[in-house]
Amino acid sequence: MTGIETFLAATVRSALPLAFAALGELVVERAGILNIGLEGIILAGALGAVVGAGHGLAAGYISGVMAGVMLASIFALCVVWRRTDQIITGTAITMLGVGATGSLYRVLFGASGAALSIPTSRPFQVPWLSELPLVGPALFAQPPVTYLLFMLAPALAWWLYSTHAGLALRAIGEAPAAAEAAGVPVRRTQALAVVFGGACGGLAGAVLVLAQAGTFAENMSAGRGFIAIAIVVLGGWRPLGVALAALAFGAATATQFVFQARGWVVPYQLFLALPYLVTLAALASAAGRTRAPAALGR
Amino acid sequence: MLRTTLVIASGTAVLVATLAALLALGGYPVLPALASLWVGSLGSWYALTSGTLVRAIPLMLAGTGVALAFRAGVFNVGADGQFLVGAAAGVAVALAQPPGVMAVALALLMSAVAGALWAAIAAVLRRRFGVLEVISTIMLNFVALDLVSWLVRGPLQEPSHIYPQTATLPEASHLPYIPGAGRLHVGLVIAIAAAALVGWIVRHTAAGFRVTAVGLNARAAVSAGLVDAAQVRERALIASGALAGLAGGVEVCGVTFALYENISPGYGFTAIVVALLAALDAWLVIPSAILFAALEAGAGAMQRDAGIPATLVTTIEALLVLALVITQTLRFRIARPVPSSGAPT
Description:
The structure holds 2 protein chains of 2 kinds. By secondary structure, chain A is mainly α.
């Protein structure tokens, strides 16, 4: 692979968990709910994947998704059923994710747990396409779960804008009272949206473990849940926009590999901080250019 | 106030019961574990002063800050980052001064200024670009961590350039210990004074009334011609950053005497729980901070004595917040987070 191909491949790899988490959060926010607990949900997915991976990769992905769904269901219960404050509840969900995964990991895998290492998904070379110059290795020689993302983004776009259910979801995010009057089951739809977001967040955590790190570490999500929420804003609450925004963040993370490869002397902490700085800059630049669902967070 | 005191008392009971249940679930011996929790937190004069109360100081300061911001409807979840830059500024200033009382005073002042400036970034991002504080303050936490990581390996590294930490403060630049109370330092007095002062301001001054009015119903406060709501929120956020920054300064001058990466075991997040259990009342932050400090000090003892993961406490804190919001014990609502990114068209 050439240098630029390596960079593009690293971009897609770094973008993958962010894209899954952000697409899920997009659906949640379109239903008018802001789930700050996404960070904890990703962690739950990561631990779930570690637990399930003992029975094979597929089991790892499934149990990661299930763990995300479980934590998201608690959030749905509070926010949709009891109408609790979304931000406080989300913060508690993130803390629960951090605390519970840290404790459970130690209980399940012993005090150190550091030796634990899980076989990761191998890249699957798509015949012919992976031979394409430049984008071939980046897009078509990745772990198979990457190809699921290629389908998820357009599928969500179609579902949101071309189906009755998608219209109903968007209506709830803009004017829940009007949607209710039009016969849309508002609470049920919101709860399902939160659960879908939990499944995507859990998958993002599973990707971190099974397609990338190959192990679990406390707090390994490292703020990706919050970055994903920023990506939803930057993507203008539209699936394809969100997918592209996730790629832009992947590129920001991947620049550190380029600098390392070229031996440029810059404090490495600057690269570690880069995704967070880019998030702030991106949110500031998105001001006034995108519009949030009118009833978001209420 | 009586009601909230009852909430804190029953909160304590619920905490201990939940802990016992989780321990039983995890297959740990419940009674010995609870015994070491007690011994490690309140069971002896030494544990109370050098363990619990020392830990309560940063929680009290940061918790007071969080309570103030939340009260104004600003979701400042960046106390941890503000604590870190405060600690960094405190160490840098104290090391640059000739050792003595003036060095400590200046260090504490500059740590509060640093925390305020760090929070001001989020305030500017909100005012100029409509970026939600919830996101910006969290991002700034990560940036602060990387900043400290760079400082202790770069410009502020100790003279021998071996360890990733700063030089140790000379003894004359330490906050003095309280006589007869082990490692407990006068930071406790500063923290209690800060909480008391903020509580008094909120209760008895026009500025405090504006904060509460904006937090409860910004639109009504503006319609009544009371306030510039954006400005009130901004100032509350900056003051809250100053308090968290001061917590960092007090921690380096009173406990660690040096700056290193893991200087905050998540004080900024525990501060959120501290403020919520205190129902955002700065006076009640004092007992609430002591409660959580005892819990965390005891958890450390449980981990040492019985190998029980200390992260269990984070789990319990999260469950407590969920219980508080579900039972609607918290009678306030944080002002709407949204009218910001993408102002309604």
